[in-house]
Amino acid sequence: MKRTRVSSGRACGGISVEADWYTESFAEAAQVLLSPETFSSADVLKARPSHKGLAGKLLAEQGLPYARTLIDNDAPEHKRFRQLIAPFFSNARVKSLREPARNFVRTAIDEVRPHGAMELVSKIASPLPLAMIGAVLGMSMSSGSLCQVKAWCDDWMALQSSSAPEGELVRCAQSYLSLQRFMSETLQNHDAAADDLLGALVRARSEGMLSRVEQVRLAMGVLVAGHETTTLGIANAAVAFVEYPQYHAAVRAEASARRAFVEEALRLDPPVQLLFRRVDRDTAIGGVTVAAGDRVAIDYACANRDAAQMGSDAQRFLPGPASRKAHLGFGRGEHACPGSTLARLEIELVLEALSGLPGLRFSEPPRRRAPHASLGGWDRIPLEWDASP
Fold it and tell me: Is residue 228 part of a domain?
């Protein structure tokens, strides 16, 4: 454990965030994740600098009150919410989404294939996960609706970690309030008998299992977390795919090679790079005593590059070794990502499609997204390939 963040290449850099300690190793990160009785998730999203001033006043006066749901909760309450959403991310549910997701990707690629160029994030990496999590929720959205919802979600994420000028934070707060109203109205108008996640949340509310605030915040949380990290996962894997052309043939030919490539991309450049826990009782970790009340940052990115866990070549992109599959790209323990199977499927399908584009390359350098307290990845990936005459 260290008092300051350790930087180790692309994945471990970032902005300054409020934490007393940072994990340095895979073992330390795993210990924190697997000890929820000591390292609490409760309220880790509640206090943000951007929630002060005029933006904070606007949220307090017009927005929903704060309520813990999934990310910022502990057992037994966390289990109550997790059990509500878990059936909608089962293997059977994800399998039913394979063809819709593949058709989405194929249609998007077919539209641009003759032109020999596209910007991947806006064309596929962003709209695909949003459409798929919309299907899980039971929200049928037009392309225009997708764009609007995405803009609201982006502003919510910016509000979580931004040090932007106050005027920009106020604009993001207003956008976040629009997302709250949208989700509240969507739930009010949703069919309680529908076999989708929103239907389940409507039933849970009518049966007294959820308050209105919990219902709306849980639906919003699934919507945002269910697409934001997958967008980054697709983008990060796509950048690696272009950077390592020696794997193109295998990824095109073999499902096992695609899966191995996805896991290595998630390991070396995970979408979630930091998350936080509060220490509930004095304890030792990594030979250091941390005190009750301290805030610990779990550094997923550095844990995934720990040579003690991943081998002496841990900094290299090397799909295949079984040890690499133990990465923390989707977390571990009771807060492990419930949508990881769906996310992996979407990333694999995008790589499958990209592998069919001959001479795939960057038309200009990809752009890393603006620094965020927890997330890391690319937000602009201009690609080109050898189009058929």
Answer: yes
Q: What dihedral do alpha carbons 290, 296, 298, 299 form, nearest 10°?
A: -90
- The answer to whether residues 350 and 125 touch, using CB atoms and an 8 Å cutoff, is yes
The residues, any chain, with a CB within 8 Å of residue 37's CB and separated by 6 or more, are 280
- In the DSSP assignment, the letter for residue 64 is P
CA distance to 106, 123, 366, per residue, from 363 (Å): 21, 15, 9
In which domain, by residue range, is 228 found?
A: 47-264+334-384
pLDDT digits (tens, 9 = 90+) for 306-320: 999 998 999 999 998
Instruction: Round to the nearest angstrom and report the end-to-end CA distance of the chain.
Output: 57
Sheet holding 295-299, edge to edge: 21-22, 295-299, 274-279, 39-40
Specify the number of domains making up the chain: 1
Within 10 A of 131 (CB to CB), how many other CB atoms are there? 20
Token pair for 235: 């983008």
For residue 387, the model assigns a pLDDT of 86
- C-alpha–C-alpha distance, residues 196 and 273, integer Å: 30
The answer to the question of residue 282 being in a domain is no
CB of 307 closer than 8 Å to CB of 26: no
Residue 323 lies in a domain: no
Question: Is the model's pLDDT at 290 over the cut of 50?
Answer: yes
Residues pairing with 378 in the sheet = 368
